[in-house]
Design brief:
The structure holds 2 protein chains of 2 kinds. Chain A is an alpha+beta fold. Chain A has 19 helices and 30 strands. A 6-stranded mixed β-sheet of chain A has the order 1-8-9-7-6-2. Chain A is globular. Chain B is mostly helical. Chain B has helices at about 5-15, 20-35, 35-40, 80-90, 140-175, 175-190, 195-205, 210-225, 230-240, 245-255, 255-295, 305-315, 320-345, 350-355, and strands spanning about 45-50, 55, 95. A 3-stranded antiparallel β-sheet of chain B has the order 2-1-3. The longest helix of chain B is centred in the C-terminal third of the chain and has 38 residues, at about 255-295. Chain B starts with a helix and ends with a helix. The chains are: A alpha+beta, B mainly alpha. At the A-B interface, α9, α12, α14 and β21 of A face loops of B.
Chain lengths: ~650, ~350
């Protein structure tokens, strides 16, 4: 201040003083508006009001016969060659709408970087040793130092790592897990999925001491251990101000995390960029399975809305890696013969994974006129030429999806096959629905003069050519698709509002033991009071929005099976139910299974390091599991080489260790 | 209709400006040609003779394959039909148009849907300018894209001028408080950002509407935010003409307001309007191209130059023929219109023929 003031004129000082006054007034007002709140008493009262769910015990109450385990014998994830430090540059197509993990708009494309890929759960399913053992999947330790599973008591006990800390330095305790249930069940967060999931799927939590707790489930499901161990706590101290204004109050505040990365307030440049910063002295930095991951000091995201533009940024070296899964990019835009690849500056890797894939396909909204007719939907299934898309657009690299729950091993229906493209069968189905004559433009019409024409919406700009192809083929079968390409967030919003006719979209699926049906097929998620008590359709039912049942599927018989499935404890019984439900959904025909992309194809600059076998069996995308690192020395070397024209041996590899054999 | 001798003189002068006149003839020719585009560029045959009966599929309802003894009920593939008939060697024949691909069909190149180079660059036969990213013929898409754009621009011009001239003349003729109020209204109105309005309106109109309806709405929105600029010129011109003796004479005879404005004042101010016309067309074509480029214009898969330009910028290195064809076509058309505009301006230049001042 001393150096600045003398150079200002008197009027300048006046203005400065005036600004100062306004600033102070502003602060004062702000303080008045944001009421300090402490919900400790409210939370305690909630625990007291639900004594069956929230139980308090002493360490002496711990059963003596528990078999504690910690997964220490499993192979380590990541490469010891990983180097710490540096900044990893990547991009986003849409700026995140919030930094909250829950509530409206929270489930966007940035959430993996806020939660899914960077959080530390109690324990994690091992990503390469994926078989089902006697106690379920194999887990390695995260926040839990050890855990014990007792099927008979339907309970999992967890002991918390003593040194585990939130990113703001506060220790993580069992109270944070208790609070998490309060939080997820709270009306304040305005997220019905969380409210419902954490109310119906858990029977109780018991606190033994600050670092020991147990969670009891309503049924001993085959994946019981997974259900508990993949939970994570919520920072009770941070959510002290939880209230009706949760959305506004927490919109742009980074939630303290047990993970390696946090977001500093100065790194939020709204609409332009956002940066993750590695937590200083992260508690898990020397822990097995964690020490070779989360390597870069910073991860910087710039917003680049256009895919071609981001590809150009990648070629310039402003972005460190690029997803080349689209054939156009892998074969034409960055072919093996490209000078960047041939000079070894950019490396190309194709890696086959093995896990349940995103459910790409046509999701038909059965609540829409004409689409409420099963025959029309069956006709559309036959009129959709996925094989042509796979052969001519993806150049044969993709595979056809057979059911909405492929990739779950024994839980996937072994014989059910998706309907092939067949004009005859499509016409036959349309005829059954009353569409027998073609109009002058070749589109089928019924006697009422209605045309067989539907809006086909997508949020995948990069895949819009798929729709152009499907449209031309469908016309042959007499059905018209009117294509609508929206930006990702808008399309998803439209989908969740159930405003679409047909949507070309995919839900990402986490590698669970068995598929979920409740979310996208139970009537509760389609309508309020879908059925009358006797099982007939309620004529006054209202469409329910903001759920994943985007086909508005409501079948009374299916509902019963879903409930039985979700309560079942026998794997064999569940398989039988899963197959029956899959057959019912096949008959219902509201989802036309599309393509499966069995690999990731990654282009990366030479300074990006990765493990020798590139990735993990369950690795969804390049950045999941955070195995990569930035080699600052190589970066300098590579940038110099680009200037001088020096070259390195080209790297073009395919990793087929997890490729499924047909 | 007997033309005003002054107008005849202006037209004669326009014709003497060769560059503009030739451009006018070329553009007019293109527009007329585009009206019959289906006869030139189409996957449907011009005529088919099958078992002694003649069919003319171009403009009628689509004829299923079964009509020609083929085993499918969707639209006949006439190119294959022609090959089949030729192979059979019977009396049946197919007459195809000069360009045999329509603007919508995807044709694979090297068995994959990807851009094919123009036929003169070694690409597949029949695609004069190659194909776009899903294998659609670029020449067909450009040609029909031109047709959509030029008629869109003509409609746009007519509408904006009807509204702009009426309001402008009224402001000039009535003057006073009316002029004052309307001027302020126009100032407010013209400050609403047009592009944002298009984006907002397009986000709320139901997507269930048909393509012609969506095009009409786009046209209406563009007109709604573009008619204002014309009012200023017409207002001042009318003010000037209103003070002349012939207007007073008309008032004295007892002519009505409408008659005075449209029959007496308008013909004397038309030279201002005429000189603006070509530039309005240019700006309309540019606007609709820009909107398509941004993804807010004509709904997919309507052929459009803007959409091709967009594809072209995304495939600059892998398929340079897309962007170069679209760019060349756009520049060609805009240049034609600009030449016409220059000539019209020169021919109608009031300075040359006005005797007063």
């Amino acid at each position: 201040m001393h150096q600045v003031l003398p150079s200002l004129s008197w009027s300048g000082r006046w203005l400065l003083a005036l600004a100062g006054v306004f600033f102070l007034v502003g602060c004062g007002k702000k303080k008045e508006a944001v009421v300090e709140r402490d919900n400790t008493a409210e939370v305690k009262a909630y625990y007291a009001a639900n004594p069956d769910f929230f139980r308090f015990a002493t360490p002496a109450d711990l059963p003596k016969d528990l078999e504690w385990e910690n997964g220490a014998d499993l192979p380590e994830i990541g490469s010891p060659a990983a180097k710490k430090g540096g900044t990893f540059y990547t991009f986003l197509q849409d700026y995140p709408r919030t930094l909250r993990h829950v509530g409206p708009d929270a489930n966007g494309s940035f959430r993996p970087w806020l939660l899914d890929d960077v959080v530390v759960q109690w324990a994690w399913r091992h990503p390469t040793k994926t078989d089902v053992g006697p106690k379920g999947f194999h887990f390695f330790s995260g926040l839990a130092s050890e855990w014990a599973i007792d099927k008979a008591r339907k309970t999992v006990w967890v002991r918390i790592e003593r040194n585990a800390r939130w990113s703001d330095g506060v220790p993580i305790t069992a109270d944070d897990m208790l609070f998490a249930f309060y939080f997820w069940r709270s009306k304040y967060i305005q997220d019905p999925w969380y409210n419902n999931f954490y109310t119906t799927n858990f029977a109780g939590i018991t606190r033994y001491d600050s670092h020991t707790f147990s969670i009891t489930l309503p049924e001993d499901r085959p994946d019981m251990s997974e259900r508990v161990l993949k939970l994570y706590p919520q920072p009770a101290h941070f959510f002290k101000e939880l209230g009706d204004d949760f959305l506004e109050r927490y919109q742009w505040r980074a939630v303290p995390t047990p993970g390696a990365y946090t977001i500093l307030p100065e790194d939020i440049d709204k609409g332009r960029s956002i940066t993750l910063t590695r937590v200083k002295d992260w508690w898990a930095k020397d822990k097995k399975n964690w020490r070779y991951r989360f390597n870069p000091d910073k991860i910087r995201f710039s917003v680049i809305r256009d895919t071609p533009k981001s590809f150009e940024a990648f070629k310039k070296g402003e972005i460190d890696f690029f997803n080349l899964s689209l054939a156009e990019y892998w074969y034409d835009k960055l072919p093996d013969s490209d000078p960047l690849v041939q000079s070894g500056l950019v490396q190309k890797n194709k890696f086959y994974q093995d896990f349940p894939r995103p459910t790409f396909g046509l999701w038909m909204n059965t609540n829409r006129p004409l689409l409420d007719n099963r025959e029309v939907r069956v006709g559309i299934q036959y009129a959709t030429n996925w094989q042509l898309v796979i052969d001519k657009f993806a150049r044969g690299d993709w595979q056809r999806m057979q059911t909405g729950s492929d990739g779950y091993g024994e839980f996937t229906h072994p014989t059910l096959r998706s309907r092939p493209f067949s004009i005859e069968q499509a016409l036959e189905s349309f005829a059954k629905a009353g569409f027998t004559t073609r109009g002058p433009d070749g589109v089928l019409v019924n006697t009422k003069g209605e045309r067989l024409s539907f809006q086909l919406t997508t949020g995948y700009e990069a895949l819009k050519d798929v729709l152009t192809i499907l449209r031309e083929e469908a016309l042959k079968a007499g059905v018209e698709f009117r294509i609508e390409v929206l930006d990702g967030t808008t399309a998803f919003k439209k989908l969740r509002e159930k405003q679409h006719d047909i949507s070309y979209t995919a839900f990402s699926v986490s590698p669970e033991m068995y598929p979920r049906y409740w979310e996208d097929s139970h009537s509760v998620n389609a309508y309020d009071n879908a059925f009358l008590p006797d099982g007939t359709v309620n004529p006054e039912r209202k469409l329910k929005t903001q759920t994943n049942n985007v086909t508005s599927t409501a079948l009374h018989a299916l509902d019963q099976k879903i409930i039985a499935y979700d309560r079942s404890s026998g794997a064999e019984e569940m398989k039988k139910l899963a197959f029956e439900m899959e057959e019912m959904l096949y008959e219902h025909a509201a989802f036309s299974p599309g393509q499966v992309v069995p690999f990731m194809r990654i282009g990366s600059w030479r300074w990006i390091g990765y493990p020798e076998d590139f990735h993990l069996k369950l690795g969804k995308n390049f950045t999941e599991w955070m195995l990569f690192w930035v080699d600052e020395d190589k970066k300098k070397e590579t940038l110099d080489a680009r200037r001088t024209g020096a070259t390195f041996p080209p790297v073009i590899r395919t990793y087929e260790q997890y490729k499924q054999k047909d | 209709m007997a033309l005003n001798p002054l107008t005849v003189k202006k037209l004669r002068r326009f014709r003497s400006i060769r560059r503009g006149y030739v451009s006018f003839l070329v553009l007019a020719g293109l527009i007329v040609l585009s009206l019959f585009g289906e006869l030139l560029i189409n996957s449907r045959a011009l005529a088919v003779s099958y078992e002694g009966r003649l069919h003319f599929p171009t403009y009628g309802a689509n004829l299923p394959g079964t009509a020609f003894g083929l085993g499918y009920s969707y639209e006949t593939n006439y190119r294959e039909l022609k090959k089949k008939f030729e192979a059979e060697g019977l009396e049946n024949w197919v007459l195809l148009p000069p360009f045999q691909f329509n603007a919508f069909e995807n044709t694979p190149y090297q068995n994959v849907f990807k851009p094919a180079p123009p036929s003169f660059m070694g690409g597949p036969e029949g695609h004069l300018l190659g194909t776009d990213t899903t294998g659609r013929d670029i020449f067909a898409r450009l040609f029909f894209g031109f047709r959509v754009a030029i008629f869109f621009a003509l409609a746009f011009m007519t509408l904006t001028y009807v509204i702009g001239i009426s309001v402008g003349c009224m402001m000039g003729y009535f003057g006073g408080v009316f002029d004052l109020i309307v001027q302020r209204l126009i100032e407010v109105w013209s400050n609403i950002p047009f592009l944002y309005m298009v984006i907002i309106i397009f986000s709320v109109i139901p997507s269930t509407l048909s393509i012609p309806a969506r095009v009409a709405i786009l046209l209406l929105v563009m007109v709604l935010f573009s008619w204002t600029s014309m009012t200023y010129y017409m207002r001042t011109a009318t003010y000037r003409e209103k003070a002349r003796d012939y207007t007073s004479a008309a008032i004295v005879i007892g002519a009505g307001t409408g008659r005075i404005i449209f029959n007496h004042i308008l013909p004397n101010t038309i030279s201002t309007v005429v000189t603006f016309m070509p530039f309005t067309i240019v700006s309309a074509i540019t606007a609709v191209t820009a909107l398509d480029f941004l993804g807010f214009g004509l709904p997919a898969p309507t052929p459009s130059m803007g959409e091709l330009l967009k594809q072209g910028t995304q495939t600059l290195t892998t398929a340079p023929w897309i962007v170069s064809s679209a760019f060349a076509a756009l520049v060609f058309i805009l240049t034609l219109v600009t030449f016409i505009g220059e000539a019209v301006r020169e021919a109608f230049d009031p300075k040359k023929f006005t005797t007063y001042e």
